[in-house]
Amino acid sequence: MVGVSCLYKDYQLECNTMNDFPDNFIFGTASAAYQYEGATDVDGRKPSIWDTFTEQHPEKIEDGSSGKIADEFYYLYRSDIVDKLKVMGFDSFRFSFSWSRILPYGTMNGGENKKGVQFYHSLIQTLIDNDLFSIGGYEDGEYAPGRCSHYAGNCTSGNSAIEPYLVMHHILLAHAEAVDLYWNQYKVADSWMFIYPKGIEDLVMYVNENYNNPTMYITENGVQDPSVPEDKIRIKYYRRHLWHLLQAIKMGANVKGFYAWTLLDDFEWSSGYTLKFGLYDVNRKTMKRTPKASVDWFTIFLKPEPKIVDYGKLASSSLLSGA
């Protein structure tokens, strides 16, 4: 079992690893362009809806911030991938494209921004050079201009190829209904929003049993934890969710991958930078990345073989708590 059935004595802890999951199971981290990249007015990029919204209505963001700087991933992506993602042992990185960087005027007639496309080409090539599986938002260049053809053709897989064209209308309708329901019935009593690890097992098994067991990827899963750098909540969260996911797989669910949200603390929309979802803390003034205890945990979990680790020397001694 994953990280839950652990034997410990005098801070010596032996945990199982990713080896408990099926062969070729993918472990990765997820990101999003506006939340990570920054450089919103650099190299031909034009304002997106969120640029305009945060500039005109900073009062709508909890800390008055925006994604103008974010994590400066636009400049620091190589070190984030090579020195962090790869070193930890992840297989994959999920990212999205900033269309205001690729098509700054909103249409093909307005012209492609070659510098923007080149950024994504370089990002994808960095992943490939480091044996990391890249997953973006589209299946092939037919749906995303220049994405897997022309001078930017290296992304090995996509995610919901025609999603924006086929389902965005219904997604927006569903979101509108959910927002209305939330504000009218639940806002004053949101204590129901609690962590329930078995939920991931239940949901996966529901899809398995009701939709002919399709191939599934958990493309985003995580929790905000203010206990920097101890990460007591986050470590327990991942331990339990991965254990329950494994139970679903053992019962036949066709799950092929799991993506943690997220590698870095980032811009969390209307919450600004007040929520801490990252495995790494990001200093908002210096952009320095500092590993949290969850980095230690994932590094050990993703080792190809189990090992004995002295957690007395690690900040992640919180691993010993919980079941």
From TrEMBL:
Gene3D superfamilies: Glycosidases (3.20.20.80)
Pfam families assigned to the protein according to its UniProt record, in alphabetical order: Glyco_hydro_1
Biological process, per Gene Ontology: carbohydrate metabolic process
Presence of the UniProt keyword Cytoplasm in the record: no
Organism domain of life: Eukaryota
Membrane as UniProt keyword: no
Keywords annotated in UniProt: Glycosidase, Hydrolase
Family from the record: Belongs to the glycosyl hydrolase 1 family.
The name this protein goes by in its record: Uncharacterized protein
Species assigned in the record: Ficus carica
